[in-house]
Amino acid sequence: MRGRKGKVHRERIAVAYVRVSTREAAQEGHSLAAQESRLRALAQGQGTELGHVFVDAGFSAKNLKRPAVRELLAAIERGEVSALYVTKLDRLCRSLVDLLGIVRLCEKHNVALVSASEAIDTGSPAGRMMLSMLGAFAEFERARISERIADVAFDLRSRRQVYCRHEPFGYKRNGSTLVSDPQEQAALVTMRRMHNDGASYRQIAAWLTETGVKSKGQAWYASSVRDVLRSRMNAA
């Protein structure tokens, strides 16, 4: 259908997404046909006809790298979807962070997300409240992930193990272990003394550049001097 100036107006349709992993494919109640049948009945009970079913067969939901889910998200972005039906939210994705991203995409394009098992329908106030709670859990999950990463980095750092892509100033890599670099450690001693005597980070950066001390980055700046002196590896 075309409107003014030949612009194409796509008719928005209700769709479903079904998925099984290889392990689940033979389990009763998890077959693709069973999921589709249940969702068609649910949509019909709500006065809606499913226009398309996106199918991922033999894929896990550990991430969004699945052909059908990518097609689904692209269709939502194009404004072609009015409602998305799933038998269970973990059919769509297992990560709360990924789920929150999909929810926000659906909200942006006015798409109702309906889950048969969790009795969630974002087209209703109660459904939106439930998903806002899931969003809070997703934020918690992100914080926990960051906390775990920080804990791992702290453990590696305390054992002088490589814990990031670039070794910190004052150290060099010896396999998976960080060992002191004599020249950089000597520069660190001077940097600390200058800082304690009142020199600014910019003045220290100028001294490092003039004396030919190589930075771990492209050049010395006030910000890079500050980061080196505040590094936990270089705490005096």
Structure description:
The termini are far apart. This protein has helices spanning 32-45, 67-77, 89-92, 96-108, 125-158, 182-196, 201-210, 222-230, and strands at 13-20, 50-57, 81-86, 112-115, 120-121, 171-174, 177-180. The strands form two sheets. The protein has a five-stranded mixed β-sheet, with helices on both faces. It has 236 residues and is α/β, with parallel strands linked by helices. The protein folds into two domains: 10-122, Resolvase, N-terminal catalytic domain (Rossmann fold, 3-Layer(aba) Sandwich), CATH 3.40.50.1390; 171-234, no CATH class. The longest helix is centred in the middle third of the chain and has 34 residues, at 125-158. The chain is elongated and about 75 Å long.
What series of H and E elements makes up the topology? EHEHEHHEEHEEHHH
Number of strands: 7
Total of helices? 8
Shape: elongated
Determine the oligomeric state from the structure. Answer: single chain
